[in-house]
Amino acid sequence: MSYRSEKFLRYKGTNVPDQIRMLKNLQEHELKQLFLDLLNNGVHGFCFSLYEEGQQPGDTISEDQIRRRMKILAPYTKWIRSFSCTEGNEWIPKVAKEYGMKTLVGAWLSNDQEKNREEIDALIKLADQGFVDIAAAGNEVLYRKDLEEHELLGYIEEVKAKTTDEIPVGYVDAYYEFVKRPQLSDLCDIILCNCYPYWEGTPFEYSFDHMRHMYQLGIDAGKGKRVVITETGWPSQGEGLGGANPSHINAMKYFIQTHLWAVENDIETFYFSSFDEAWKVGAEGEVGAYWGIWDSKGKLKFG
Known about the structure:
46% helix, disordered N terminus, eight-stranded parallel barrel, alpha/beta, TIM Barrel, globular
């Protein structure tokens, strides 16, 4: 057995408090090796980062660009999550299927009713064509206050009515929205919750426990339904928030803890994100550009 395998298995076999203590004592080169072991062993899913330098939402992205990025991700993951079904995003589930991956496909909803109609129709079409394994009608629409709850419920009901029962239909938002809105949780076939200790200003040493608590609240809200963590992650650089501080070391540790826990407990988790995206600086500040496991050029950041 190689040194690398011993390190991986010794860490994997410990409980969470001991894992945290082990990580604290590892040197940077040991963390990188452990990160690579985990990545090469395969993770459940990645959120697909669509935009390269100089691009932003609203731009139409080519099939070739999506293929380039999918080729990088394919050896490491079983699932891909997309956020929209138009402007080139429709190629994401199609190309993912060519690589043998499963897909969580989202329709991007906003306060633009005309655009919402295009997105919902495109999601239903992709589902009819066999490219959708999980359908998400909207992403953080309630968080952004783009739609009222009853409007969102109408879109979810439509997608459920117009797709096969074999495709679970849900909606993606912060875990607490499902706690606050029982009608939403009851309507969804599946609970698709985002869990971000960073965005709640949690110091890194408490972040993993906080994320697991968020997930448990999603479990409680779902009342026995399948629960998927649709986004979680930690930025590698940028400004801090409250007690939460970005760094390469913290990003590696968060990835390691999250995915070992997910594998050991059979928890479906989509890591945010696959690639760094510069356009997110406008919405989230400097830190928004540094959530990827790969940088904006497609180079692995840790390892």
